[in-house]
């Protein structure tokens, strides 16, 4: 193992640790020296190849870039339908999640709307799910 | 470098094959391809085989030697998995082997069993082509991933559901005379608009069906075809493959498919054609919006204009560049691991003149096949030309 090849101890975080951090209000992303953002698990910057990845605080507010109202789900989300799936732009990274706090039956256009990210639970199972919500006014 | 010719093609009908085993489907397609080529199956050097979800649908891994055995082949066999582009990469591997001189006669293609699972299980199985951590656990399905791309496209370029409906109408009409198509029936724009939603803005007729089926093509070198007096008038003259980040959230662009653009550029350079030379295309329309983005990546439509190509008649049978004369994945069906081979088979039939829709491309000399994996994190493009 050379210095260029990171060891297990060098892994910045796991996916579950990332969820735990969001749940604790301490959401983060990984950043390489070139300023490229990515999400864990990640040993190497996918664009620059740098292994020098630091934890940076996730911006509190993101913007919905695209969304869909899902009516036919996988069995793991069967009781959650209809639900809104969306990708939100948080600047250095985008995050995919389920939109809550918005009625999927009456939405007009969510593109450009601000959202925060949190961790919730599916209606179908006890599994955790990334949640995007309108900021509290 | 030798020219690679298509010596024969074989397909099963696409649809619900009940209790038939996948190996039986591939054996049927391979037998048809071998018969079409007029070759001795004992001369085949290798099998390049595509399959995506066999471990889930039939609890069958290690499929390639099983398929070779079922087809009566005594040769090395390899399975390729690249989601919906599995057979496309299998064909590409076969072309490259013949060009490299390591094989003279190859069978490529693929097979998928899907109706052995219920709709929920199929939705689950297809979702494994997405990022399990950041997409599937976040509630993304295969249809909703393309719905996210469609919404992003509408937001960036304009267009809407009615434009997509024209693509579904076109491809259903194209499938009517195709004996291999799952849905040999026409639909109307109103049928598409009134269909129940799957993942808005996509509704039922924006989506390809759940399909069983197999494809097989026999490829050979120019020299082998000549010395064995094979009738193989169509050649694969260009191959290209492109890749992208797996998750949509990590892509530079959500309303475009740069992996397919890269694959097309490589394939066109390989064959020496430009987009203006394309007479006919089979593209990966797993959802209607996917055909839009495919046209733009292939250069058949300019950026932001693919949405109108069917509605304006550019890609209809009488248009400048007919697209998906087979019916496409949308109406012919999409047995995932077989589709890339099926596209080559259909284009070959169209260019040879023995396809039910060949009349629309009677003077065509150049065709393009576009096969995409997942939300186009992988893409393969092949250029087919009528060889002298």
Provide a short characterization of the protein structure:
Chain A is mostly beta strands.
What is the subunit arrangement here?
A: heterodimer
pLDDT under 50 segments of chain A (min length 5)? none
In what range is the share of β-strand residues of chain A? 25-35%
N-to-C span of chain B: 17 Å
Numbering strands along the chain, what is their spatial order in the largest sheet of chain A? Answer: 4-5-6-8-7
CATH homologous superfamily assignment of chain B = Thiolase/Chalcone synthase
User: How many extended strands of chain B?
Assistant: 11
Task: Name the structural class of chain B.
Answer: alpha/beta
Number of helices of chain A: 1
Strand order of the largest sheet of chain B: 3-2-4-7-1-8-11-10-9
Number of domains of chain A: 2
The total count of strands of chain A amounts to 8
Question: Major beta sheet of chain B, specifics?
Answer: 9 strands, mixed
CATH topology of chain B: Peroxisomal Thiolase, Chain A, domain 1
Question: Spans of chain B with pLDDT under 50 lasting ≥5 residues?
Answer: none
Number of domains of chain B: 1
Mean pLDDT of chain B: 98
How are the SSEs placed, and which strands pair?
The complex is a heterodimer of chains A (137) and B (388).
Chain A: H1 15-23, E1 28-31, E2 37-38, E3 54-57, E4 62-70, E5 83-89, E6 94-99, E7 114-121, E8 128-133
Parallel strand pairs in A: 6-8
Antiparallel strand pairs in A: 1-2, 1-3, 4-5, 4-7, 5-6, 7-8
Chain B: E1 4-11, H1 22-37, E2 46-50, H2 54-57, H3 63-70, E3 77-80, H4 86-100, E4 105-112, H5 119-127, H6 132-136, H7 142-157, H8 161-175, H9 189-194, E5 197-200, E6 202-203, E7 213-221, H10 222-227, E8 234-243, H11 258-271, E9 280-282, H12 288-298, H13 328-332, H14 339-352, E10 366-373, E11 378-386
Parallel strand pairs in B: 2-3, 2-4, 9-10
Antiparallel strand pairs in B: 1-7, 1-8, 4-7, 5-6, 8-11, 10-11
Helix pairs in contact in B: 1-3, 4-14, 8-12, 11-12
